[in-house]
């Protein structure tokens, strides 16, 4: 597999180079080609395929038109978790609202957030689902927020590549806006530049935290016989919304470790 985090070597890396488009379980190879074309028109080049039903084919290359380079450079991963492991922001695009309690963003707000994070040095993924069934709830659980194109509510499902085009266009506008700020008259010495802070926590740091949170809640008997899934879903949503950085995750994990230690001492004292 090629590295999903790699950037084209002949360009100075900018925010667009830290944005990846992830297609999960794509069923029609033609859509992979059309998505590559949609991306390239908007200055995006990093395509990741998660377990496509069929590998890119002659049909994909035909529909990619001049975007063969994007298609040829596409990485392939076995799972979505693998495809986004190094990402600090993962946004899942959905044709309809799901029961998964995720914050839902409009494409414009999603693009602003994605490009803001990428401009601050973070890896960002926009994830698209299968033509027939979209993203599974488990896959959406790996996302920090969902993105919905506010289409006709009676007919809201766009073709996969058309959805990639809409999001890529919004990303393009956001990239151009950031570039305009960087080269505009106030670029140097002005106030109000981006606040320097620790990098946002990576996807795997957050998953490590959630695993420890689950163990701790068990250890302190938080669930009292209730199924833990519902509470964990709500807690995931809360912590993902908070946009924690690596240091904050370390502090929270320190608190959990102490709670686990106290619970084990209390058990010994019984
Ligand atoms: N029947 C599927 C539709 C899948 S369309 C379903 O109901 O989920 C394939 C993919 O295109 C979706 O998984 C999503 O990533 C993207 N997509 C299609 N329409 C969209 C919309 N209105 N908003 C956001 N993403 C959309």
Give a verbal description of the structure:
This protein has 10 helices and 7 strands. The chain is of the alpha/beta class and 270 residues long. It folds into 2 domains: 15-181, 3-Layer(aba) Sandwich (Alpha/beta knot); 203-269, Helicase, Ruva Protein, domain 3 (Orthogonal Bundle). A 7-stranded parallel beta sheet has the order 3-2-1-6-4-7-5. Strand 1, helix 1 (29-41) and strand 2 form a beta-alpha-beta unit. Helix 1 (29-41) runs parallel beside helix 7 (160-183), helix 5 crosses helix 7 and helix 8 (203-219) packs parallel to helix 10 (246-269). The termini are far apart. The structure holds S-adenosyl-L-homocysteine (SAH).
